[in-house]
Request: fold
Amino acid sequence: MTRRMRGVVFDVKRGSVKDGPGIRTSVFFKGCPLRCIWCHNPESWLPEPESDGDGVIGRETSVEALMEEILVDRIFYRASGGGITLTGGEPMMQFPFLRELLRAAKAAQISTALDTCGFAPWEEYREILGLIDLFLYDFKAADSVRHRELTGVENRLILENLRRLNEAGAAIFLRCPLVPDVNDSPDHLAAIAALAEELSGIEEVTLEPYHPLGVEKAERLGRQGTWKCRNFPPPERVNAWRRAVASRTRKRVVVA
Reply:
């Protein structure tokens, strides 16, 4: 079956240490149902390969071809407690291909992590529960109306899926992008901590400060409605975010 399965990715990064525990290979899937205004990978939005003037972004590939790339670093995964992280974009948008890649990774005894926005049918998450060792789960705005303004979708389904994963016993890192004066209000920081306290499966809260690396890419691609700030948040503001969350939860709080 995997020999007939094709998917579209736009990058494969070896030696990653920021997409889960240990040394990892991160596979970036094309396609995303959200339109986050601060997105640092706007080239991931469309599901098909596209041109940005400098070349083609995205390539069609097979499960076998990706596994060849992944297995090159098998020794590093085992030594560091790492593995592969499937990210994007939103890998769930290519669910059949994602499922087959996960099956192949598990057959090769490679640890797996899924970086997801949570906006996909619960039935699909349930189907791959046994194939994923860690969910890197996004939490971008506590208020549903504000979530729609910032990402294009409400957060009801996202929160429902998160709670269902928690009930199913999934291991979860809650990943929280924070943009100054956009989604870093005291209420949202308190909501991050409250969610971490509520759900036992959340092992870590990862705060992800805004970075402007997607601005130039968005301009080249003609993406509309994106955040144009070219400044990193100052360290003192990032430290204040961490203190605000850490003071309200017993869970580990880190800054990416």
Notes: The CA atoms of residues 107 and 140 lie 34 Å apart. The radius of gyration is 18 Å.
